[in-house]
Design goal:
Shape: globular
Low-confidence stretches: none
Distance between the termini: 71 Å
Largest sheet: 8 strands, mixed
Length: 404
């Protein structure tokens, strides 16, 4: 050896990450800096029910504790433990989902989405994603080398998918359509007619539907959730669900995927997904023993959760339609609102300055995507009503001070 020290060269991140964004956590970095200065932040940015006044059903905690005491602390089966898979199949059956070809458990819906897209999409192919969308989808597709291909949600039609625009975005390399229903970030719930039209597009163009239904228990106007897989048993559909939202345990990272449709068409795709599941060994073993008691046990906590959210939704809509320059389509599911702001500044500058001046933490709409010429921000209305009122009065004051 010469004894000379080689020059240190910068190690660059992969170019595929250039289009990966996650604004929900990114804006929190500024909030953390303000909190270190002693500022009290009002968090309206992350959909984490246990951080507020939503308690985990005790029988789920006991089920997991029992599983740990019973020694369920090693690796589990790659697809999931049998009793959990059977409970998920039973829940799918009750929702009218037939022709189920596979069910598997993942570390949250996020891992399930990653596995299903990775097993499907080749570089250069594309997947239709909603605009606005939950940014996980575009982040994974960017990692896979899939060019963006968005379809708009129509704000003037309660944020239903713009079906004409969706149809116009189906190309030779399009492999799938992503649905988020109930929707994050808009709170929209899609009509049966909309879902039937989307199923027909998939049928005509040999597309897979990836339907994220993690908020299916949180429809706020007394309606029963409709799964697109139940309307189209002849179409390949992957229905995502989990314990995070309706059962109030996002930190447990327990999600699942239900693969339905024609067996012959899905055989190779399912084997690809199973191969990836085997490679990552298993999802959290002990937590899976909460699935059966969650899906088949007492559901009375949901009445209280939905009642709280409905009241907080109504308060949110009232305040977000009161000041000038601000309007909001009433959300019908989940716990998000996506108000529109009519201002000269960018929505990112709006939420940053709102945070600095009023300590209200929301997320800019451009982080989720939005139609050209529009500006929005996302509100999570999980906090108690007194906290929400304080936040909304601060937002109104901020708008008056800057845009009157």
């Amino acid at each position: 050896m010469s004894g000379k020290t080689a020059p240190i060269r910068e190690i660059l991140a992969a170019q595929r990450l250039e289009n990966v964004r996650y604004p929900i956590r990114d804006i929190a970095v500024l909030a953390e800096a303000l909190a270190r200065e002693g500022k009290e932040i009002i968090p309206l940015n992350i959909g984490d029910p246990p951080a507020f006044d939503f308690d985990v059903p005790p029988h789920l905690i006991e089920a997991v504790a029992k599983a740990m005491r019973d020694g369920k602390n090693g690796y589990g089966p790659s697809l999931g433990v049998d009793e959990a898979l059977e409970a998920i199949r039973g829940a799918a059956e009750r929702k009218g989902i037939r022709s189920v070809q596979s069910v598997f458990i993942t570390s949250g819906v996020s891992e399930g989405v990653d596995i299903c897209l990775t097993a499907l999409v080749n570089p250069g192919e594309n997947v239709l994603t909603p605009c606005p969308e939950y940014p996980l989808y575009s982040a994974i597709l960017a990692k896979l080398g899939a060019p963006p291909n968005v379809y708009y949600l129509d704000e003037d039609s309660l944020w239903q998918p713009d079906l004409e625009h969706l149809a116009s975005r189906i190309f030779a390399g399009t492999r799938a359509i992503v649905l988020i229903n109930p929707n994050n970030p808009t709170g929209a719930v899609y009509s049966r007619e909309t879902l039937e039209r989307i199923a027909e597009y998939a049928r005509e163009n040999n597309l897979v539907i990836l339907s994220d239904e993690i908020y299916d228990e949180l429809e706020l106007d007394g309606e029963t959730h409709v799964s697109i897989a139940a309307l189209a048993p002849d179409v390949p559909v992957i229905t995502f669900g989990g314990l995070s939202k309706g059962y109030l345990v996002p930190g447990w990272r327990l999600g699942w995927a239900i693969v339905s449709g024609p067996e012959a068409a899905l055989r190779g795709y399912i084997e690809g997904m199973h191969k990836l599941l085997r490679a990552r060994l298993s999802a959290n073993h002990a937590i899976q023993y909460a699935v059966k008691p969650a899906l088949e046990g007492p559901q009375d906590h949901l009445d209280e959760v939905v009642a709280k959210l409905r009241s907080r939704r109504d308060l949110t809509v009232k305040y977000c339609n009161a000041p000038p320059h601000l309007s909001c389509v009433p959300p019908r599911g989940a716990f998000y609102a996506f108000p529109r702001i009519d201002i000269p500044d960018s929505d990112e500058d709006f939420v940053k300055q709102l945070l600095i001046e009023k300590q209200v933490l929301a997320v800019h709409g451009s982080g989720f995507g939005q139609a050209p010429g529009t500006k929005h921000f996302r509100i999570v209305f999980l906090p108690q009503e007194a906290t929400l009122e304080r936040a909304y009065k601060a937002i109104a004051a901020f708008i008056r001070e800057h845009y009157s």
